Structures are given as structure tokens and as C-alpha cells.
């Protein structure tokens, strides 16, 4: 287990929060935005034979959710290492 | 071999498999029993989480509900998948770092209070029992139709199987059984979906067939044709919603935040070895879930199209065999209002009261249909169809071979049992670990605690069975409320516990209680006290009881933060604990304390 300074940990936490904020914004836009609030307006466009708002609500948002989690896991692994707080060396 | 024999064979084989796994992976310690020893690979955990997650409601009811309400059904798809994003971002990694056995463990320690632990344990038991009630009912429905046993016998057989592996194996047994159950249920869901997609659109991938053209030469896409057919019958268009935007918003939010606050899902992330594994594992879980959740809306639209085609304007004498089969379960019925021997299907309730009540002597009408004692309604619609049968009857409606029908039966049972087992486990650990070991009789040894855990699981199985035999309401409806309660009670306490160092025990306890009481009271008022007032004009801001958990959650946050500011800061040790869980390195395997 590495010992890390308080300052370093605070900076790590800020980096985490900043990544979270970005990804949660995308999460909100595709779910509550494209699939609910803007859905009626998006329906005028068409994608793979679907009305676009309907597609987001019943297909698209789910694909984006999956991608968001993997992006978070991947980016966080990099941030963890950058700040020396990664769990790579922890016993499994 | 007949469909009946195949069904017995498939369901029997799957049961043998689950029990075999249970015996192979017996729990030897409380650590095995609560968190499967803590060494579960993220992909395995993802698969187990997916099975844990996808319940009788997902497998049996969801596509059926979407099939009948079309666009409004999106709330379930969005809510039950979007919550995993919150789980992976905001809760799972930190709870894994915390490294104990249960969700109330975290609340109790973070808010340095036995009272907070007990409130959390009570919320958890409440939410989980609400949820488990729907599962046993799902098992009953599958058994009554496919194995032609009484619903109650079906529930008892289901209880016996869950008892075997949940009580023996604990989390360890459940984890490996759930992996098998996921494989059974996803295969059972996809096979008929692929067949039907090929039949209707020629495209074997349901997600694409959903938007493709129907192969009847009309040049219309599935959704265009469905909109047209439904409008002709007096329904609203499939791709247009009827719920208000604010209500859709609130329901989706309640389901999402509720998902992230559901204890039986959270506890799955205590079982992986490391913090980074918890993040990844949530991603794998959502992949496995998304396979079913992106197929479900496709199945919903195909099934509705098929149903209208087969039933509407068909003479009862010429109706396919499945119609009679499902009439026997009371999930479908026909009343020949205009006495022409032909089934007319359309908008509006066919019967009054809405659910069919068959003539007690089992008398058959002039066309061979089962006679009803319900009054007719004004509506020209003559057919009652329960939403729960859409997935189960779908292969029969589409005329698929017997083995596909048998497979769906095994899949439905797998979905219901895997979720029931996960829920029963968190209930039993809340009782044996949080209430007994940590609160009331702390002197018990690990061996005794394990015994109590098994006893609690056994009692919980029996109570769940009673819920299945005397069901409170139909499957998905009950489950939807569990989410509102979880969102309003547990989610804010967990989130603040990690992201705010200022949140203290006074705030957390009053917030949890306020959220739970408010949400429960609102639901109980509109569902049980004054159901006649359950419509948009009487709702608070136009939000239905299904969506009120979102408001309960905001109330919880507001109260928890306000009271925390007005009372003393949490002690330094707790602030150090928060600092520690924010850092991934140094996570130890979970231990008893």
C-alpha cells in the first residue's frame, strides 16, 4: 500500500469529480434530454427506420450508457496511476 | 416429444443444474455466505449481477407492458439501465473500498450510529420484500401455464429450489447459480426473439428488425405498420406517448436512482477483489443486461403486431390452440358481445370488472369459449388480454416449435428464481448481520451468525412464498414501487456518505425517514386509501405514485443536507474514513469486524 499525501489525494478527487461531471452531463443529455424532453422534437428526424426520439428512448440511450461506464473505468484507471493511488498492486 | 414433456425436461434439468452448483459451492464462513468470499471475477460478477437484476418483471412483464403502452414503456428501459451508470460512477467503487458485508454496514459506520444502521436495515428489508413479492408470483404464473400445476404448487416448488441453494450456499452458491441462470434466461429470451424478427422482417437481429420493413410487401416499417393498425382499432399510435413529460421524467428518475439504491444489486459489488474491478464489473453487468433490454422493445412491437393479426376478426372456432390454453389460466378471455362468433379486438376495457371471472361450473359458450360472469362494457372490444402473457405466449402466438416454448418456461423460472435468491440473501444478512450480530446480540460467534443467517434466509423464503400465494398486485406494478422506496430512502444516504464529509448522522437518519415515509404515504394513499382519486388532476405536480420516489429523494437530500449543517460535524475518524474510501489503493478483502 502506498502512502500518499493529503494534497495529492485532494487533487485526485478533483480529477475524479471533473471526469464524473462530464460523463454525467452526457448521461443526462441522452436519457432525460434526447429520450424525454427533446424526444418529440427529435421525432421529425429518422434513423434506421425509427423516429429519432423514439430510438433514443428504446435503444440509443442504453448503448450510450454502456459506453459511458467503460469510458469511466478506462479513464479512472489512468487517473489512478497518474496520482499513484491505483489498486494495481493490491492483492486480489 | 410433446411440448409438455419438453417443458418438464427443460425446467427439471435447469433445477438439477442449480442444485448441483449449490452443493458444489457451499458456504463455509460468513464471508462466503455474505459476499462469496470476495474473490469473484468482474465478468462473472457482471453476469451474476445481470441475472440478479433481471427479474420476473424484466423477463415476463416488461416486454408485455411496452407492448401495450408503446412509447410510455420507455421509462422502464431507460430507468432500469441508466441506474447502472450512477451505480458505477457514484457508489460501487467506494462501497467496495469500504469493504464490509452489507449496505447497512456502510450506513452504520459512516454515520457512526446504530440507529442509522437499523433505519437502513429496515428500509432494506422493506424494499426487498416489496420486490420479492413479484418474483414468487412470476414463478407461479410460469408453473401454472407450462407445467399445468396449480399456481400455489408452483410457488411451493419454486420456494423449495431457492431454499436449497440460498440457504446452503449463501452468496457463493447464489453467484455461481446466477451465472447459470443468466445463460438460461438470455438464451430463452433471444431464441424466440430472433425467430420472430426473421418471420416479420427477415432480419435475424431483433434490434435492427425493430426498425426494418415488414415483409408483407406493404413497404411499411414495423413501427409504421403498428401505428396504423392500432389507430384503426381505436388505440393511440404506438410511437406516441400518453403520459405527461413531467411524469415520464419523474418515473424514469425514480427507477434510475432506485436501481442505484437497491441493496441486492449494491451488495454484488462487495464480492469483487478490487475497486477498479467494481467499476468494470458494473460495465459488464450493463452489457449483459442491455442484450435483453434492447431486445425487449423489439419483441414488444413484434408481439403486438402478431397478436392483432391472429386475434382480431378471427372466428373463435378457428382460433389457434394457444388461445384456449391461456384462457385456462385466466389471463385471456373472450365475451361474444354481438353474438357473431368472431373475436373483435380494439381499444377500451372489454369486461367489467376488468379482469375475467369465469363461470364457476366451467360452462362453455356456444362457440366453445369459457363463459364469464363479468358484465359487458360499452366498448366494442370483446377480448381481454393480460399484459403478463405477451412474452410467455409470444412463441405460441408466432407458431414456434415446442422446444422454444419449453425454453421460455425455463427462462422465466430462471429469471424469477435468480432475483428472488439475491433478495432473500440481503434480507437474511440484514437480519443476521446488521440486526443480530451488530446490534442486539453482538456476542455470537461466527458459526452462530452463519446459522442465524441460514435461519433468516429460510424464514424469508417462507414469507416470500406467502406473498406469491396471496399476491398483493400484479408483478411489475409491485416491483416499480420498490424502486421509488429505494430511491427515496437509501440512495441519498449512500451518496452523501461518500461525496459529502459534512453529512452527519442526524441529517442521514431524518432524511431517510422523511423520504421513506413521504413516498410510502403517497403510494399508499393513491393505491390503497383512495384509489378512485388516482389520476393526474389529484397528483402532486402531475406526478404519479410510480414517479413520486424522485420527489421523495429530493426531499431526503434537502432534509439531510439542511439538518447536517445545523448540527455538529461528523467526528474526525469518520472524515478520515471518507478520505480513505475515496482512494482506490489499499482495499483489503472484506472482513468481519
N-to-C SSE series of chain B? Answer: HHHHHHHHHHHHHEHEEEEEHHHHHHH
Structural class of chain A: mainly alpha
Question: What is the β-strand count of chain B?
Answer: 6
Q: Number of DSSP helices of chain B?
A: 21
Helix coverage percent of chain B: 55-70%
Low-confidence stretches of chain A: none
CATH topology name of the largest domain in chain B: Sodium/glucose cotransporter
Distance between the termini of chain A: 13 Å
CATH architecture identity of the largest domain in chain B: Up-down Bundle
Q: What share of the residues of chain A lie within helices?
A: over 70%
Total of domains of chain B? 2
Mean pLDDT of chain B: 78
How many beta-strand elements of chain A?
Answer: 2
* Strand residue percentage of chain A: under 5%
Strand portion of chain B, in percent? Answer: under 5%
Oligomer: heterodimer
Spatial shape of chain B: globular
Structure description:
The complex is a heterodimer of chains A (92) and B (593). With 92 residues, chain A is mostly helical. Helices cover 73% and strands 4% of the residues of chain A. Chain A contains three helices and two strands, in the order ααββα. Chain A has helices at residues 6-37, 39-42, 52-82, and strands spanning 46-47, 50-51. Chain A has a two-stranded antiparallel sheet with strand order 1-2. In chain A, a hairpin with a 2-residue loop joins strand 1 and strand 2 (50-51). Chain B contains 21 helices and six strands. Chain B has helices at 3-24, 30-35, 42-53, 56-69, 74-98, 103-110, 114-146, 151-201, 206-209, 222-232, 245-260, 263-266, 275-311, 321-327, 389-397, 402-440, 446-469, 475-499, 505-529, 548-566, 572-581; strands at 314-315, 332-334, 342-343, 351-352, 375-376, 383-385. In chain B, helix 11 packs across helix 18 and helix 19 (505-529) packs antiparallel against helix 20. Chain B starts with a helix and ends in a 12-residue tail after the last helix. Chains A and B meet through helix 1, strand 2 and helix 3 of A and helix 5, helix 11 and helix 13 of B.
